Fold this protein.
Amino acid sequence: MVNYILKRLMGMVPVLIGITLITFFVIHLSPGKPTRLQAEMSPKISLEAREKLDKLYGLDKPVHIQYWEWVKRLMRLDLGKSFVDERPVSEKIGERIPITITINVLSLALIFLAAVPIGITSAVREGSAYDRISTVFVFIGFAMPTFWLALLLMSLFGVQLGWLPISGIKSIDFEDYNLVEKIFDLIRHLALPVFVSAFAGLAGISRYMRTSMLEILNKDFVRTARAKGLPERDVIYKHALRNALLPIVTIIGLSVPGLIGGSVIFESIYAIPGMGKLFYDSVMARDYPVIMGVLFIGAVLTLIGNLIADVMYAYVDPRIRVSGR
Amino acid sequence: MHIKISRLFGIFLLIVWGHAPVGHTSQEVCSPAGDASQPPVAQSPYGDAIVTASIGDASTLIPILASDSSSAEICGLIYNGLVRYDKNLELEGELAESWEVKDGGLIIIFHLRRGVKWHDGRPFTARDVEFTYLKLIDPDVKTPYSGDFERVKSLEVIDDYTVKVDYKEPFSPGLSSWGMGIMPKHLLENEDLSNTRYSRNPIGTGPYRFKEWKTGEKIVLVSNPDYYEGRPYINRYIYRIIPDQATTFLELQTQGVDQVGLIPLQYSRQTDTPFFKKYYRKYKYPSFGYSYMGFNLRDPKFSDVRVRLALDHAINKEEIISGVLLGLGRVSTGPFPPESWACNKHVRPVPYDPIKARALLKEAGWEDHDGNGILDKDGQEFRFTIMTNQGNDTRKTTAEIIQRRLRDIGVVAEVRIIEWATFLSEFIDKGKFEAVIMGWSLSRDPDCYDIWHSSKTRPGEFNFIGYKNEEVDKLLLEGRREYDKDIRRQIYNRINRLIFDDHPCIFLYVPDALPIVHARFRGIEPAPAGIGYNFIKWYVPTEEQRYTRW
């Protein structure tokens, strides 16, 4: 197993280099210069001043040299500095990751808590009214534009009922609260964003669960279990479910890179300073170091997530473990 | 899709401080309680906080590096310049108590205010002014504002409270450039400005002190009890970053935000409810900028002034204002906003007259020879593309209305919307466009050399439409050499007339700034400069204060 993991890790290095190389060049191919955007369209900002800025940022050098300098910095684990505010990229990403991960973990947990039971029950009662209604329900969540749902809920709970705050992650006098008030305040602020993002994700997982459960329920060993007179509960939860969860394990592994990704639409609406907004703003401002930083971390996490998924899969499924040897 | 307006080009969302425009200001009194025009009583109550919403976060709080409107807005409260514009948009002293202009404008001597203190208690002196100037012209400092200061030959500190500035040649817009926030020498002297902790932890001399900055979330300032004009009444200034307009509007409905700039639809329809009438007041005044449709004057189609005038006749500006801005704007009559002293009041907008437009085009040789409904000349049909940037619905809709009106006279215009960065670098800078719809936001000083002088046509410079008029060139140079305001007025009035008569672009409209402020704030006195100029005199009566923890 250790050998296998090491081999996989080694194999990731060229993939990673390939990813950075392609993204770096693609980003630099897109028209527009960061210095031009920073300076807006104000007649007070002269061409000479902008040319000076190009030079100071090293933007006058050829792209391959800029890439090499980026790689050299990366070797020292330095992601560089943002063109927009000169702060280290790692710091900019670091201050936004906690809130994004918090929301994503909470919503992922909520998705699994709701989607797995929905999937199981609708598979067990395949074709029933419950199955159809739950299918329609999760697909409504999938199809409904998040920004629209978000605004409707904000208007209902924030304005009409006045139960929840509209936006942000903390009240403006948060610092003066005691611990209990702080926790309560955070929960109130996070309730809607977490719910909205979970609602949209229900369909995927519950469908996976349903399909995989249906497949298992038609297997011979399930029939055997039933034939030997096990109660239906045990058949489903002890025998079928364990096998049906295998694909879900893979999905958890693949969700790892998604944990640091945010949605710009979503974060803009709720005024949450997360990764999605950071990335979007960086692209719009052609802030190359930040774009590269976010993409690089995303690439690393994707590769690690794949590895974790494979390892976990092997761990829970003896068949793979055995044939892999 | 609802990231509608990026701060790069959202005219309406520029909030009122510092950008406060010129002109008549109207106020809609929505609340029976309290009268805003009443002067603050002798002992106005201190306390409360104001929550402002902005679509974008600041990037740095070093004034000479701040190029976005959010950074500039916060810097405006933390720092002071030597001069500033008062409520009637006349220059007045801020850190400079007075100034003298000598030798026909070659020398400016600033007499600085005594007893002004930095937020850390150290006295402000002429050394700080010198330091700020040296940083502005330092080639290693990433400031976009070096242009105006490159014209200074030398700056001399005569004593702790007197500074003498020598210009290479008289440069009247230079005086207002000293409105730049002055930075503390004792703290920043040995710092790399673009990489200093003070860029996120600034020390200034202004009415508010920096408290905290949560990136992407909020910036909090607290009132400066030692401010030289007296302690501001409102204890805290909270700048919340809310990127989505719809969210901001919901926040207004729960009174979570006290002040924001509205868009026309919100101003005229959505805030016309009993709730808003009770809890908020709306203000309206022309913003200091205009939108226009510019022609690429190097294109042979547009080289004939009769053609440009014809297109101007064919476009109904009033219709655009009522359709796109819901009437909240006025027709632009040239490169200066209508209420600016530089604006020539005798210049009338070109009236909507499609018949005259057709006649003028015919005179210039454009006729529908083959009867297909499209004008042609020498076998070429009159077709062109109007480009504008993505994310600005106002411009997009304007383009569509223009397209419709041009079709009426037999001209086919296509509309192309392009992402801002690409639009600038691939089309504007390279001169690869036929017509564009864009806007200028202007400085208070009427000097517009960079936009209209014929030397400013290199890629990346601002006369990208390629305008050239020798008399205008000459007058632009004269205007920036002259300090006498009456003479300058004549010069700029003449420039206004000449440029307008050349029709290098179709001047469309000057949109209104539409701020809304919570009704508990008193002491707001709308003036030509807008409402933000006397912010430190705003107050909330004790019994109406909302944030009492502080």
User: Anything to note?
Assistant: Residues 70 and 80 of chain A are 7 Å apart (CA to CA). Chain A touches chain B through 61 residues (CB under 8 Å). Chain A has a mean pLDDT of 83. The longest helix of chain A spans residues 179-217.
